[in-house]
Design brief:
This protein is α/β, with parallel strands linked by helices and 277 residues long. The protein is built from ten helices and ten strands. The strands form two sheets. It has a five-stranded mixed β-sheet with strand order 1-3-2-4-5. A five-stranded mixed β-sheet has the order 6-8-7-9-10, sandwiched between helices.
């Protein structure tokens, strides 16, 4: 049997197309994890983080349209939530996709960890039904990030934190963000989840620093006897924040060594905070 040149080209075209169709979309994206049935549980469930998972097929036209937006979503959510994808066209992943009720492509599902994280506990899942563009997807995921950061209403409450941990085996570190905004940053929520059980995270809106002189007197009176060095450093922080309430300041309280450390980074990122702690 003799093959014509056209036949040979057609055969190679079919082979090439089959190869391309089976390829993952996001293998080269550093902000997106391409998961498989084998490692899906470890990636999604063995974490205290919220995950956005896209179930897709490379031949799907809507998946191709969503691909550029997903690259931007991955970058925007870096350090805030995991962005995971599963290629449902691969035979090894078809059972996983079916297990999660995937009937069409692309399907976006958000996985949220339980309030009290335990290894092996399945996360709650929720299908994303909004617009398939970067901004609404990112906004939705940020709203689903678990929050372990507690808001402080006054300087007085810092005393409660320190007294709670005095002479106990509880967290020896407490991190407080003096914030010009009243909304907890999603990245701080995510960092708080990473350090859950080791570092407690708090936020105090700078508008709650009313009279710096009264506040420093309270600090000196209420817990300077337990933590004299931290009390002195905290008074300096209160004074600076009262003078410039439109700025953010992140501090770490070390109750064991009676030290207060001020974070000097320009932005709050997971890597920088990990090095700081």
């Amino acid at each position: 049997m003799r093959l014509t040149l056209i036949s040979i080209i057609s055969i190679w075209s079919l082979i090439f197309n089959a190869f391309v169709v089976g390829q993952n979309f996001y293998d080269s994206d550093p902000h997106i994890i391409e998961a498989t049935a084998r490692n899906f549980d470890k990636i999604v469930y063995s974490t205290n983080q919220t995950s956005l998972v896209e179930f897709y097929a490379p031949w799907c036209g809507y998946c191709k349209q969503l691909k550029p937006a997903m690259h931007r979503v991955g970058k925007k959510l870096d350090g805030i939530a995991q962005v995971v994808t599963v290629n449902c066209d691969q035979e090894k992943n078809k059972g996983l996709c079916s297990q999660h009720g995937v009937e069409g492509f692309p399907t976006l599902i958000v996985f949220r960890p339980p309030k009290i994280y335990k290894k092996g506990v399945k996360h709650a899942s929720e299908k994303y039904q909004g617009d398939r563009t970067m901004k609404p997807i990112v906004h939705f995921i940020k709203s689903r990030v678990k929050n372990s950061v507690k808001k402080l209403r006054s300087i007085d409450t810092i005393q409660t934190i320190l007294n709670k941990h005095h002479n106990t085996k509880l967290n020896k570190y407490s991190m407080i963000l003096f914030s010009k905004m009243d909304t907890i940053p999603p990245v701080l929520k995510s960092i708080g989840n990473d350090w859950l059980g080791n570092v407690e995270f708090f936020m105090l809106h700078t508008k709650n620093i009313k009279n710096p002189e009264d506040e420093t007197n309270k600090v000196q009176k209420k817990f300077a006897s337990l933590y004299p060095n931290m009390a002195s450093s905290l008074n300096d922080i209160i004074q600076k924040q009262s003078e410039k309430k439109d700025s953010n300041r992140l501090i770490l309280l070390d109750r064991v060594n009676d030290k207060l450390h001020v974070y000097g980074g320009k932005q709050i990122t997971k890597q920088d905070i990990a090095q700081f702690i």
